[in-house]
Each structure stands twice: as structure tokens, then as C-alpha cells.
Amino acid sequence: MLASLQITSQQNPLIFTDLDGTLLDHDDYSFAAAQVMLNKLAQRKIPVIPNTSKTRAEVFKLRQAMALQGPFIVENGAAVYMPTDFLPEQAADTQEIDGYWCKTFAPPRSQWIDLLDALQAQYGDLFRHFAAMSIEQVMAATGLNAADAQLAKQREFGEPLEWLGTATQKISFIKTLQELGANPVEGGRFMHLKGDTDKGLAMQWLIEQCQQQLPEHNWVSIALGDGQNDVSMLQMADYPVRIVSPVNPLPVLNNNKPVITSTLSGPAGWAECLESLLFS
């Protein structure tokens, strides 16, 4: 573990967090083990900013359950949503959507659905993507209930797919996708088909807005994640935190920053690491 951050009125942490397998338990999606820490962060007015592959509809529901009130990033960096009162002014190149300034970085989902449809003849039996899956199939693949599976299907930018073929076939499939302009990344359960966006770029944009509009604060970024699609976010953070996963290897980082790794998995590991960083 690293030494604790010394939080002062001039030092403002921004906590960027993956959800599935990090703040949410991999098996049952519970965040109960992190509830005490979420309460402590709320009392200190430290923003917890979901940075996730989930949809805007899914994050809305989770933020309400967790009583989070700050910004959030959806669909692997495809868009940032910032409450209109989070910063003094509207950020450039954003539009207002339901009380949030929205910055988009990705083309619409339809582009990737069309691409996958074009690959059906070559790879059709080897994958299933969300737009073509029934609610029951999404429930079986994710463990979500029917209502939450419906929210998961309301994607706006990227397209998750469930790989059904071999590892060798997957390598060929990924190469084909990349040649066609897609940027596939592996998440905790699915491969995510998306444009040239990632969690790190969206996180950096939001940090820059805070620095530009409130330069008197010393902003410090903490990022927590458990999967390879979290690497860009972890590498860009001042304090990267890897959460042990029961199903996936730890994300591999390619920089020389000290890295914190939890001893516990999921929300328990999330709370463990933030306790050490911020409150020990």
C-alpha cells in the first residue's frame, strides 16, 4: 500500500471507478461491502465517478442507489455526463441532456451493429451481440434480472458481444474488427466493440475541465479497476488501484507509477484500498 494522501482544502481527490467486479460484486452486483466507505466519501464531499462499460440508463439507477451526485462516464469512455452544477461553467463542446452537460467521444452504436451484421457470414456462429440477444439471453449471460437486463440493452455508443468460439478464432476475429476500424476491448464478461475511445481519455477530459475551471484546487486522481478495459484509466491516474478479481487476471500496466493492489476482491477490496489511501 502507498502512504495515505493528506487531504487539505487545497487538495481535492477525484475517484474514478469501474463498476462490475470493482465497486460491484462480480457475482451478485452488490455494493454492500463498500457502503461504509461510500458514506465516508460523501461526508468528505469526495466525488465517486463511475467510469464503466455500463449504459447511461444503468448508471442512473446505480447512482441513485448509491446516492452519488457527481459526474459519470459510460460505455468505455464513449461519453461523460456532468451535472450542470458540478463546475461553474458549461464545458466546451457539450450539450445539455436531462440536467447534465454531455461530452461525447464516440460514433453511435448503429455503426458497430452494421459492422457485426456484415461479419455474420464469416463469424456468425461464434458470437452473440446485445442488439441481437433477447432479454432472456442477456439475463443468462449477465445474471441480471429482467429490468436490469433491459437497461443493459439500452446502449447508445458501443456494442458488447459474448464470444462463443475458441481463443484462436477470437484472435482472428479481433484482427478483422481492427482492420475494419473497430477498437474491441475485453471486459469482465464481454468483448466491447467501440470506437477510438477509452476510459482514460474520458477521465483525462473531465480532470482537465476541473483544472481549467477551478485551478485553485490541487486535483488528485484515483482510479480503481479490475479488468483490461480499465488499463487506460489506471495508467492515467495519479494513484492507480487494481482490484483482485475472482475470474480475471490483474490488469497489466505499462508505466512506472507505483500501483496499489487490493488483497480482497470487489467492493471489499475497493473499500480496503481507499481506506488506506485516504483515511489511514
Q: What does this molecule look like?
A:
Keywords: Hydrolase, Magnesium, Metal-binding. It comes from Paraglaciecola hydrolytica. This is Mannosyl-3-phosphoglycerate phosphatase. InterPro entries: HAD-like_sf, HAD-SF-IIB-MPGP, HAD-SF_hydro_IIB, HAD_sf. By secondary structure, the protein is α/β, with parallel strands linked by helices. Helices cover 34% and strands 21% of the residues. The chain is built from ten helices and 13 strands. The mean pLDDT is 93.
Describe how the helices and strands are arranged.
Layout: E1 11-17, H1 35-43, E2 48-50, H2 56-66, E3 72-74, E4 79-83, E5 95-97, E6 100-104, H3 110-118, H4 120-123, E7 127-129, H5 135-142, H6 146-152, E8 159-163, H7 167-179, E9 185-186, E10 191-193, H8 199-213, E11 218-225, H9 231-236, E12 239-244, E13 260-265, H10 266-279
User: How many separate domains?
Assistant: 2
Strand residues, percent: 15-25%
Biggest sheet details:
5 strands, parallel
Q: Which consecutive residue ranges, at least 5 long each, have pLDDT under 50?
A: none
Shape: globular
Output mean pLDDT: 93
The CATH topology of the largest domain comes to: Rossmann fold
Number of helices: 10
The SSE string, one letter per element, is EHEHEEEEHHEHHEHEEHEHEEH
Distance from N terminus to C terminus (CA atoms, Å) equals: 11 Å
GO molecular function: magnesium ion binding; mannosyl-3-phosphoglycerate phosphatase activity
Keywords: Hydrolase, Magnesium, Metal-binding
InterPro entries: HAD-like_sf, HAD-SF-IIB-MPGP, HAD-SF_hydro_IIB, HAD_sf
Protein name: Mannosyl-3-phosphoglycerate phosphatase
